[in-house]
Amino acid sequence: MVLSAALAVGPGGLAVAQTAAVPFPYDAVDPFIGTSGQGHTFPGAVAPFGMVQLSPDTEHKVLRQGYDWASGYRYDDPTILGFSHTHFSGSGHSDLGDVLLTPLGAGEIKLEPGDAATPGSGYRSRYDKASEVAEPGYYAVNLTDSGVRAELTAGTRVGMHRYQFAAGAPARVLLDFRPSIYDYPDKVSWSRIRVAADGTVTGYRETRGWAPGRQLYFAMRFSKPMVSRSIQNREENVTYNGFTKPGRTPGDRDQVEGRALEAVFDFGPIEAPLIVKVALSGVDEAGAIKNLDSEGGDFDFNGLRASTKAQWEQALGAVQIDAPAEMRTTLYTALYHSLMAPSVMGDVDGRYRGPDQAVHAAEGFTFHSTFSLWDTFRAEHPLLTLVQPEARNADMINSLIASQQHSPYGLLPVWQFAGQETWTMIGYHAVPVIADAWMKGIRGFDGVAALKAMVASATYRPYGGLGDYMDLGYVPIDREPEAASKTVEYAYDDWTIARMARNLGHADIAETFEKRAQNWRNSFDRETGFLRARKADGTYRTPFDPTAINYGSDYTEGNAWQYSWFAPQDLGGIVGAMGGDAATVAKLDAMFDFDNSKLDYSHAEDIAGLIGQYIHGNEPSHHSAYMYVYAGAPWRTQARLKQIVDSQYHARPDGLAGNDDLGQMSAWLVFTGLGFYPVTPGSNQYVIGRPFVDRAVLNLPNGKTFIIVTDGLSDARPYIASVSLNGRPLTRSWIGDDEIRAGGELRFVMSARPNRSWGSGAAARPYSMTGFGR
């Protein structure tokens, strides 16, 4: 606990200091937030950006049924299958769930998971919900059917289990190497489990799921010697490399290969807890063993837990927040979720597997993967530039550059995990991540090599209609799906290339991409006031319904209402295209106030958190509430942010309105809670919204502190009356990245009534490529 001082009125009307205990940031985090509803988070143990995400799985589903189980866990599920070592936090798609371990108690050994509705039908166990504990880096639960107290902790590359079995019961552990989250048909291409003479268990499997050809290796040791073991391939027949042989191999072998492997390790009755130590590698079993030896000592569960807790305390301590209790919990949990990915995917010796499936050695950086870039370029990566050391940000960017150099197509990652590309979502959004970091002065990577990689991705004609985009100035819908969205997303990415090229002195590249950055205009229909898809002959596709949402249609996970605001590099131009300030404000209000009662979006899984046609549960809307600022009405942004935060975020399991998407939903809240948001990564500006904290301190990577203070914050005072920076009035509606990094104080004074003049003039508005009203 820490002490915070407050002022109260004492005898004689004098102000006296009172001290109140305020929880440490670590204690304010609730990992169960987002584990119900559509948050898709998991409650298990993970270190900041850790390779291992050790968490309970309550269900595995096939792709078409499993959207709700994208993290492997649902808060209200009645049983736990076991504990696997890899998970995505808040993804809208899934895979992973590797190396599933389940402690077994006394009785018959069951090798199938069974049915949750039929207790005892398989190895899954009911559990005592009241016993469930989740903290950053630690998880625990009592499994009632098996009679086991299970605890989990994790380091960067190691996961550790501690199982306390019932007195007199045999200590047995099942390894099911068959399932994954989202079980695709025939997902396991091949796998192997083997036991060395010293009892170390290693294994490998290749899967063809979301990232085809993904290879994963593990190494595992137990704190007690085995008294027996059984490893089985449970296929009826095995076909590999053209040869077929009988499956159902005997269980007493030291090594078994196949596509349906399970193992049971028996340690007999033991009094002390059994500790299981597991490490992963994307390279080979030797790499997994090296990783196993790199952390956790000699089965030192408490030591690993303490080490990871210290890492979390340091990472969460980058922001000190004083806010009402629920808001403080929600904000610190959001910060926690923002610090899980991109995750380390390089071994302790520096080796990693690239998108070419070859093994490479990192020179001067740690390879990271799990890049959900369509989501995270917006706020997640900009947040990391403020709350993580330069070296961590440089590691991520070096990983992006290395992936482009290893890519068979010479492209930067689009949606990558375990070093492998999924080709999910659109755009080339590694580009703004790199440019934003470079423009903010983050170094530790080769700027020229980065620019080369950015240009290569933006000029690869076969990708997503890029050839037509380069020739026509837009992506034609009769040749490429989701063409309207691709046009505007490419244009924004192009602007960030121009920014970095101009900074590096490459004027020719800058001029080319500055011109391309205006391509958003080629798909904006001034007559209807909406972004629309055009055909190759130049006509807009008809019929046109701005509320229609269908996968593979004109837009990506959205419709015209959301995408018509997407030109972050030129939002002043959007205001002009909409018809000016008043028309823009009216259009924004129409979006938020739209009557959805006759619309059915149940077919679109990602459409969640609706406020009219604003969809907070999906990323295309995330900057839209800040658009009022560009139309000279910051007070309307302040009102809408209150509406969004109050309705979309809560300190409970269903407290996220939509998929967290590897931290983007959470990063939006962290920024908005502090009072500003990076509407245009690459501009080095943050648009001022309104704060939701009484006080916050950013402990910046350069050692300086930036303090946010809010006077008069309450539900009854939702509007900004005035803003000052370092004691001087701030009349513009944005703050520069350089001003934050210099340290200082940003002070808000709140009011029950809007200040309609603050930040409203054209000169007070944030950056726009072509200015305002054009």
TrEMBL record:
GO terms of biological process kind: carbohydrate metabolic process; glycoprotein catabolic process
Domain Glycosyl hydrolase family: 288-751
Residue ranges occupied by any Glycosyl hydrolase family 92 N-terminal domain in the UniProt entry: 29-281
InterPro entries: 6-hairpin_glycosidase_sf (IPR008928), GH-type_carb-bd (IPR014718), GH92_a_mannosidase_put (IPR005887), GH92_N (IPR041371), Glyco_hydro_92 (IPR012939), PNGase (IPR050883)
Signal peptide (from-to): none
Enzyme class: hydrolase
Family matches, as Gene3D superfamilies: 2.70.98.10, alpha-1,2-mannosidase, alpha-1,2-mannosidases domains, GH92 mannosidase domain
GO molecular function: carbohydrate binding; hydrolase activity, acting on glycosyl bonds; peptide-N4-(N-acetyl-beta-glucosaminyl)asparagine amidase activity
SUPFAM superfamilies, sorted: Six-hairpin glycosidases (SSF48208)
EC number(s) given by UniProt: 3.2.1.-
Keywords: Glycosidase, Hydrolase
The keyword Mitochondrion appears for this protein: no
GO cellular component terms given for this protein: cytosol
Pfam families: Glyco_hydro_92 (PF07971), Glyco_hydro_92N (PF17678)
Keyword Hydrolase listed: yes
Protein's recorded name: GH92 family glycosyl hydrolase
Organism: Brevundimonas goettingensis
